[in-house]
């Protein structure tokens, strides 16, 4: 049965000033302002597009597109596939510097040793819709008043419609001692391609002591992931006879274990049953990797810190909007793209739209949310193109398959009001083997073969069928 997606995947944007940046972070554009001979290169690239998966260029083959998509992650690829069917491939371009596209929800299982990292990666060119222009560059500024954006090396590209899908940035560097601390053992993070395998190594090498799992004092993508790896670690140590030697701690900056009461209650039962300690309002501010010490601030007592020795540390980094969006005309005061929460149309610029993690939509940032948003945004743009008002409304649907063991998942689904919005006519707050296989096996297939091709707009039709049209 078709199902949902969770944890927003795609390319990564992270603050890694000293720890080697991922090779896929971008290809620096070699183009500058248009010079003699560029016209010939344009023609050559356009001609070549009919033989390849897509048209790829280090800068735009044209200086104007009917639809310009910023970002080649989940939202960007999905919407470019949908827009291709609407206006034609030659009228759509995607700006994305990364050479590799990742299905990041799989990294929970990679960090737990249940999947291989390589299975989460594909070349960006292989997921780019055929015929759509792939501009291998980075956006440096947005000028919505003039309907254009600026790329590296002062390249200007204009548009009729703009879709912003730039994702979220990781900021390990905001924790003192990171990212350089990842050079030491005993520490990992499932949020980065560089460090997810370090999680599995730390898990295997655990001997005795504190195992600490963190949640930062910022918005995050896939808010369930920081505790999923904790449950997998606990299960692994039970299986290998080390559980009695592990003091498992979840230090979270939040005041609750999960934002939806139904699922929070179920998780608290598991936490009690498995003898896990939860420390609320604790924010990781420093890692002393050479001493295996983690320093947390007590958010109820600002400035007061406590130091914990660790035998294993899993870090969920602080996150925020991409730098290019901070103080941008398209963003709110924090830096998130300022869109209408029901239509995804920009609140000020009617030809600008946002999708996914980079927006200020008040829902959990997951790929399940992107899937549901893509269907709504498709309808919104169709009507705007016809000079009509959008009518389709996004209800905030999002999903998080809460992995609680190597064969167990609680499938959390909910809306803007943090009310359950479940697809199946069963109690999804119960741990189920079927939901685990959905997470581990069916969701990746759905992602690569339906969502990225613009054919999956979330489980609403399935939900209606399962509930006989009553929900």
Compact summary:
The protein is of the alpha/beta class and 471 residues long. It contains ten helices and 23 strands.
Q: How is the secondary structure organized here?
A:
Elements: E1 13-14, H1 38-48, E2 55-57, E3 64-70, H2 74-87, E4 92-95, E5 100-102, H3 107-111, E6 121-123, H4 124-127, E7 133-135, E8 139-143, E9 148-151, E10 155-164, E11 169-170, E12 187-188, H5 196-205, E13 209-215, H6 225-239, E14 246-252, H7 261-273, E15 277-279, E16 282-288, E17 293-298, E18 305-309, E19 312-314, E20 319-320, E21 352-354, H8 367-385, E22 398-405, E23 408-414, H9 433-451, H10 460-466
Parallel strand pairs: 1-11, 2-7, 3-4, 3-10, 4-7, 10-21, 12-19, 13-14, 13-19, 14-15
Antiparallel strand pairs: 5-6, 8-9, 9-10, 11-20, 16-17, 17-18, 22-23
Helix pairs in contact: 2-8
- Give the uncertain stretches in residue-range form: 1-6, 13-53
Question: Mean of the pLDDT scores?
Answer: 90
Structural class: alpha/beta
Biggest sheet overview: 8 strands, mixed
Q: Tell me which oligomeric state these chains represent.
A: single chain
Shape: globular
Count the E strands.
Answer: 23
How far is the first residue's CA from the last residue's CA? 18 Å
Query: What percent strand?
Result: 15-25%
Task: Kindly provide the radius of gyration, computed on alpha-carbon positions and rounded to a whole number of angstroms.
Answer: 22 Å
Q: What fraction, in percent, of the residue positions are helical?
A: 10-25%
Please count the helical segments: 10
